[in-house]
Design goal:
Length: 242
C-alpha cells in the first residue's frame, strides 16, 4: 500500500497514493449484535467472488493469554476467515485484557492507543489483498479509545461503512440513528446486514428497516446459535464489483 500516515492536532493526514485495497468498515447498531459473525461472513463472501480479503479488529477488549500474547476471540475469527491471513499483531494491534469498553480497558492496561499504529497495521494488510474488512467496537458513537472516534479512523482508512443491524424490537430507531450519524460524519453508508437476534422477528418489521435505511440490504443472517461464518456467508448478496 505504501501510504504515509500522520496525525496533527487530532486530525489524520494521509497520502492515498498507491492504495492497493478498498476498505469496508463494519459497525453495529449496538454491542452484541453480531458484527464479528457478519464481518467474518463478509470475508468468506468476498473470497467466494475471487477477491483476496483480510480482516482487522483494530482495538479489542476482553482478551485471554494465548500463543504469543493476549488474544481476542473476535480478532481470531477474522484472522481465520482471511485469505491471505495476516499476522495477529496486524489483525489486532491493541489486544486489551479487560472485558469492558475499549476506553476503560486501555486505561486499565495503562495503554494509550496510537492512531498511527492502527493505520500502519492496516497498510501492511492492505498491501497484500483486494479488500480489508475492519470491525469496529460497539456501535458507531462508542469511541475506540480516548480521543479516537470510529469516524476518524474510518476516514483515515478511506473506508466505506457497513452497518450491522441487530434485528429485534427497537432496532428501527437504532438503525436510523446510526445511519444518520454515519452520514453526518461524512462517511458513505455502502450497505447494511441484518443479524436476526430474535427467532420470531417479524418480516413486516424487517421491511420497515429496509425502507428506512438509505443503503441496500446485503443480506440477513439467520437466528442460528453456533452458526459458522462460512455458512452464514451464503445469506449475503454482494455487488458483483466488490
Amino acid at each position: 500500500m505504501g501510504a504515509e500516515v500522520g496525525i496533527v492536532a487530532g486530525v489524520f493526514l494521509r497520502d492515498n497514493g498507491g492504495m492497493a485495497a478498498s476498505t469496508l468498515f463494519v459497525t453495529g447498531t449496538d454491542t452484541g449484535v453480531g458484527k464479528t459473525l457478519a464481518s467474518a461472513a463478509l470475508l468468506h463472501a468476498l473470497r467466494a467472488q475471487g477477491r483476496r480479503a483480510s480482516g482487522m479488529k483494530p482495538v479489542a477488549a476482553g482478551c485471554e493469554p494465548g500463543d504469543g500474547g493476549w488474544r481476542n476471540a473476535d480478532a481470531l475469527a477474522l484472522q481465520a476467515a482471511s485469505d491471505p491471513r495476516p499476522p495477529y499483531a496486524d489483525v489486532n494491534p491493541y489486544a486489551l485484557p479487560e472485558p469492558t469498553a475499549p476506553q476503560l480497558a486501555a486505561r486499565a492496561a495503562g495503554i494509550r492507543v496510537s492512531p498511527g499504529v492502527l493505520t500502519a497495521a492496516h497498510a501492511r494488510i492492505a498491501a497484500d489483498c483486494d479488500v480489508v474488512v475492519v470491525e469496529g467496537a460497539g456501535g458507531w458513537m462508542a469511541p475506540l479509545a480516548d480521543g479516537l472516534e470510529h469516524a476518524l479512523l474510518a476516514r483515515a482508512l478511506d473506508a466505506e461503512v457497513l452497518l450491522v443491524v441487530g434485528l429485534r424490537l427497537g432496532c428501527l430507531n437504532h438503525a436510523r440513528l446510526s445511519a444518520r450519524a454515519i452520514e453526518a460524519d461524512g462517511l458513505r453508508l455502502a450497505g447494511w446486514i441484518g443479524s436476526t437476534l430474535e427467532p420470531d422477528f417479524s418480516a413486516d418489521y424487517l421491511e420497515l428497516v429496509e425502507d428506512a435505511l438509505p443503503a441496500p440490504c446485503l443480506g440477513v443472517l439467520p437466528h442460528r446459535p453456533g452458526i459458522d461464518a462460512r455458512t452464514a456467508s451464503q445469506a449475503l448478496r454482494l455487488p458483483a464489483d466488490w
